[in-house]
Write a structure and sequence with these properties.
- This is Glutamate racemase.
- The protein is an alpha/beta fold.
- Helix content is 39%, strand content 16%.
- The chain is built from 11 helices and 10 strands.
- The two termini are 28 Å apart.
Length: 268
């Protein structure tokens, strides 16, 4: 039985969980969210490391085949610390914005991210390494991840408009540098007239996770087992049911449908 743990401050782990269920529909998932300490971008590096280690410990108790840090900000600040604690016994996979893929198009692009990730040396190193030949516009999106956690559509649209206002009108490519943002990809594309191309990380992260544990990414199809469940969800260490706010997003509805009937009754 394949078992994978994912951690994030909030709903940002939803995209990676959905991608894992698509590519490995037999896998069971354990989710560790941290609503008491969201947003992670507001924490000091030391505090964020402590929170990531706390969630990783909750996941490690289930003896998973891998742990996914499904959060860009936590990956920037805490990936190496969590790896030092658990590898090689448990592979730990971080989340990297799809800068390399976007740069491969040869088009200028923007990177939308939390203020903490936008100002990080980590993101600038990605740009310098993979996108030196094109123009890259870092766009900080304060409040967008928080609005997505709350499923507050008015706040989501306001944050999207504010981010678009920071971009050159002719720029049509966006790298989503926060795992939350993919949940509102359709709203981002609809907010500006004309074509917008988005690059996101869940499928690459899911594929890398499965590679690390030696699992073929077959995907959902005829004859493929589709038995995987969300067997446990945690909120800052408390065992809970998945939040009903997931109903606001198509991937969230799919995740709710996979919640184990043995999950506890308490909601976040």
């Amino acid at each position: 039985m394949t078992r994978i743990g994912l951690l994030d401050s909030g709903l940002g782990l939803l995209g990676a969980a959905d991608a894992l269920f698509h590519l490995a529909p037999h896998a069971d998932l354990i989710l560790a969210m941290d609503p008491d300490f969201t947003p992670y971008g507001s924490l000091s590096p030391e505090a964020l490391e402590a929170r990531a280690l706390n969630s990783a410990a909750v996941l490690a108790a289930w003896e998973p085949d891998a742990i996914v840090i499904a959060c860009n900000t936590a990956s920037v600040q805490a990936l190496e610390t969590v790896r030092a604690r658990y590898e090689p016994d448990i592979p730990v996979i971080g989340t990297v914005p799809a800068v390399k893929m976007a740069a491969g198009t040869g088009q200028d692009f923007a990177i939308w991210a939390t203020p903490a990730t936008t100002g990080s040396a980590y993101q600038q190193n990605l740009i310098d390494t993979f996108a030196a030949e094109v123009a890259v516009s870092p766009v900080a999106c304060p409040g967008l991840a928080e609005a997505i956690n709350e499923a507050d559509i008015a706040m989501i649209d306001s944050a999207i408009d504010a981010a678009l206002d920071q971009m050159d009108p002719g720029m049509e490519t966006i790298v989503l540098g926060c795992t939350h943002y993919g949940l509102v990809a359709e709203r981002i594309m609809a907010a500006r007239a004309g074509a917008i191309t988005l690059f996101d990380s869940p499928i690459p992260v899911a594929k890398q996770t499965l590679r690390r544990i030696g699992i073929d990414a077959h995907g959902v199809g005829p004859g493929q087992p589709d038995t995987g469940e969300v067997i446990a969800t945690y909120a800052s260490g408390r065992l809970v049911r998945l939040p009903r706010s997931l109903n606001a997003y198509p991937a969230g509805k799919r995740l709710l449908a996979r919640e184990s009937s043995a999950a506890p009754l308490t909601e976040i």
